[in-house]
Amino acid sequence: MYKTTRNLTVVTAFFIAALVISNILASKVVQIGWIEIPAAVVAYPITFLCTDIVSEIWGKKDAQFLVRLGFFVQLFTLLLIYIAIFLPPAPYMTEFQESYAATLGSSARFVLASMVAYLVAQSFDIVLFHKIKARFSPKWMRNNSKAVSQLIDTAIFITIAFIGVVPNLLVMIFSQYLIKVLIALVDTPIFYFITRHGSAEPPTE
What we know:
The chain has eight helices and two strands, in the order H-E-E-H-H-H-H-H-H-H. By secondary structure, the protein is mainly alpha-helical. It has a single domain, classed as Arp2/3 complex 21 kDa subunit ARPC3 (Orthogonal Bundle), CATH 1.10.1760. The protein has a two-stranded antiparallel ribbon. The longest helix is centred in the middle third of the chain and has 42 residues, at about 95-135. The model has no long low-confidence stretch (mean pLDDT about 85).
């Protein structure tokens, strides 16, 4: 991927989509054996990959802007959720209003949890990414800086989103973090492939 405005727009679109859908998916808790994780684990790690790609190709300032943009998008999402809940339903839809409000209302809690965890962890990740980049050359080292930042993210998010809801927060925190680390290892080849041109401009004909 070359350093172009169009490519930055593409990465931003995937970032925002993964961020917003994560808040909706998080209300479902998945259990596989002893592992308990929010369904959002399939989408949220993509946001860290996107900020790493932007950091690598476009630099620290653009990555920080992406994080701030994501924060305000989540605020906007939260506003739209509450507007949708309080709008009066059509007469033939009143029986669905309670379940609709419960679903979107829980999403609002997850948006709040996500906003706090996201802002802290993503900001930390960008700083750590560039510190590693300045001292070590291998890409895999800075790409996997998210192993630390996602631990912070997971602990904050799970605590705010699920306290009083799930019986064992520590099991869920460990489960989600384990899955995120595995995903981070899997997405390393993707990071290498997408950033193979570094911060180079597209070749001119």
